[in-house]
Amino acid sequence: MTEFKVDIxxxxxxxxxxxVILAAKYSRSDVVQKLIKMGAKTSAQDVFDRSCxxxxxxxxxxxxxxxxxxxxxxxxxxxxxxxxxxxxxEVVTALISGKHSPDFPSTxxxxxxxxxx
Length: 117
Description:
Layout: H1 19-25, H2 29-37, H3 52-59, H4 62-70, H5 79-85, H6 89-97
């Protein structure tokens, strides 16, 4: 039987999306958790400079957000503003508990330097 080795941190050539970014974007907390256990990098960003935490926050996926925070994802990446904008209260609470600053001016282009407040 042939053995295949897969790089779970490989990024798509054009979008630069990694498997954990795609799983977070489509609310697959089960897959996010498995990928993190396998060593997926939560700091990876796609072509839009968005991380798995950003996408999980955008869709209000609290299970994924908590798993990504426990894995040590970088803070103040625009995730808090994105989730506040979409009124995901529980995710806002989780991000603030995870040391994301409500006063951080987001550097994301579509956020225009605004803060979550």
